[in-house]
Design a protein that fits this description.
Length: 402
């Protein structure tokens, strides 16, 4: 009954970029060192204290640069992924490595001076790569195929283990490759975000043990009518859960009985942001963005008008937090500043470049793809104030050498 997971797995958004020019093959690195990670017995879970600060690998906004995945077709008609980095300090793009068959690539992220990424050589096996661009060296750690990186701190990468329809968490020491299970609260369906020490999770609450009904579809669906979804902060060090909000499994209803969708967008400071709307087929109505405090109090709609049928707004992050919500408008791009609570329109019409992220020194990285005749320049760094004023001049990012 695989379809049951779809009832409470919320919509995830992903943005993929294509390079302006074909990628060249990356230089061969030194021979990789392969190790096999050994998981500790489940009965002896690891100490869960976070080493430093947790960060969300899905945010894709490290402080030092923007990582881009390009593709190049091989003679055998497969496509290899080429990872490149836009360095904010130098405004230059550099080529990092060839990650192999793009269809086998999973999550990728920077860890210190290293680049980490997961691949699946086959459906039954996975490999975790730790590549050091400075000297071309690489370590490869064998993983079970149902483990997927989701968060990292100064020492560990945290791995989701999916057991349809719920998940558990394990973590791998990036220095040794050792994997340890973490005692995970029951019935977690999604891990959304982190505040640096805790994880924001969604879990199912039911008076009837769902595991006993998993093969009984009618009884399972009946139990779901009274089930609740709990959004909560999970403290890894203590195991404590702090409830943010709860709502019926099938969602809140409007006056016509339509389910009001809730999609988590991200956090800024002490606020959580959610998209709310009624989605039917290819259309959406009652679109809005709501915010609440980290503990769920003070829920309110933010002053950011979403047109009918627009759906979920884009997010522009800085340092793992939402800075802007963005949508396309009639005259340009509409921006809601999550820190100030103010909305404004960035003029420029169709020529307004789309913002990708904000750097910690106050610049907007924009994509120039399909905006400029000179196709060799794909990105530009623009001071935040200039961008919001409709001035899109800035510093062009020097393309990577082919």
């Amino acid at each position: 009954m695989k379809k049951k997971i779809g009832f409470f797995a919320l919509l995830a958004l992903a943005v993929s970029l294509t390079a302006c020019t074909p990628a060249a093959s990356a230089p061969e690195s030194e021979a990789a060192v392969t190790t096999t990670a050994e998981a500790a017995p489940a009965a002896e879970p690891a100490e869960n204290a976070v080493a430093g600060t947790l960060r969300n690998l899905g945010a894709k906004d490290p402080a030092d640069g923007y990582y881009q995945l390009d593709t190049i077709q091989q003679p055998d008609k497969t496509y290899h992924g080429i990872l490149r980095k836009v360095d904010f300090a130098t405004a230059r793009m550099t080529q990092l490595c060839d990650v192999g068959n793009i269809e086998q690539l999973g999550t990728y992220f920077a860890w210190g001076e290293n680049l980490c990424y997961e691949t699946w050589p086959s459906p039954s096996e996975a490999e975790f790569h730790i590549y050091t661009p400075a000297d071309g060296s690489e370590r490869i750690i064998s993983l079970e195929s149902d483990l997927s990186p989701s968060f990292a701190d100064d020492q560990y990468v945290y791995l989701n283990r999916y057991a349809d329809p719920f998940l558990s968490l394990e973590r791998m020491d990036l220095n040794t490759g050792d994997i340890q299970p973490i005692k995970t609260p029951d019935l977690i369906s999604t891990i959304y975000d982190t505040d640096g020490q805790r994880l924001l999770v969604a879990r199912l609450i039911s008076e009837i043990p769902l595991e006993s009904l998993w093969d009984e579809e009618e009884q399972y669906e009946a139990a779901m009518q009274n089930a609740t979804v709990q959004y909560a902060w999970w403290d890894l060090a203590t195991g404590a859960l702090e409830t943010v909000l709860e709502e019926p499994f099938h969602g809140e209803k409007d006056e016509n009985g339509n389910e009001i969708t809730r999609i988590y967008l991200g956090h800024n400071g002490d606020s959580l942001f959610f998209y709310r709307g009624v989605i039917t087929g290819q259309s959406s109505t009652q679109n809005r963005v709501e915010r609440c405090a980290l503990d769920g109090s003070g829920n309110e709609e933010v002053p950011f008008d979403l047109p009918a049928d627009f759906g979920v707004p884009g997010t522009v992050n800085c340092g793992g937090e939402i800075r802007w919500l963005v949508i396309t408008g009639e005259e340009g791009i509409l921006v809601y500043d999550a820190a100030t609570g103010q909305s404004q329109e960035v003029s420029g019409g169709a020529e307004a470049p789309w913002p990708l992220l904000l750097t910690e020194d106050g610049q907007v990285l924009v994509s120039l793809m399909e905006k400029e005749e000179k196709s060799d320049v794909c990105y530009r760094l623009i001071p935040e104030g200039d961008y919001l004023a409709g001035n899109f001049t800035g510093t062009d990012v020097v393309p990577a050498e082919e």
